[in-house]
Design goal:
alpha+beta; single chain
């Protein structure tokens, strides 16, 4: 298993208890090239918790929040890159957020929070489509 997935499993599993379902990282692709490995936060508590309880993301790591149209970095001590996606995975808006900032996109359905620099490293742009390895964004 790749190191980013191992690190993410230990980050996101934490003390979840014996009866909690396992949380597994997914790969996100653009044009068939893997961009990041991400954990999906689509339940109420997972979306509420967000990145606040975890150490700073390293390159290749991300958190997918769905449904979501707005994010903030209040209480965080590091910058993040954010991609707002439509339900089909098309990038609607990109942002680099420093601590104590917020951003939203009215038509977004999915948010991908990534390590700072990911947008530039992978030349992400509005209008491109991101795919996840195990299905649709819905």
């Amino acid at each position: 298993m790749i190191p980013a997935v191992n690190r993410m499993r230990s980050m996101f599993l934490g003390n979840i208890g014996e009866n909690a379902p396992p949380r597994i990282g997914i790969s996100i692709f653009r044009d068939g090239i893997p961009i990041v490995t991400a954990y999906e936060a689509h339940g109420f508590l997972a979306r509420l918790r967000g990145l606040h309880a975890y150490p700073e993301l390293v390159p290749g790591e991300a958190l997918v929040i769905r449904p979501c149209r707005a994010v903030h970095t209040f209480g965080m001590s590091y910058d993040i890159d954010v991609a707002f996606l439509t339900s089909t995975g098309e990038i609607e808006k990109l942002a680099c957020l420093s601590p104590r900032k917020w951003c939203c996109a009215a038509n977004a359905d999915v948010v991908v929070e990534m390590a700072t620099g990911t947008i530039n490293t992978h030349s992400l742009a509005v209008g491109q489509t991101l795919f996840k390895e195990n299905g649709t964004w819905r």
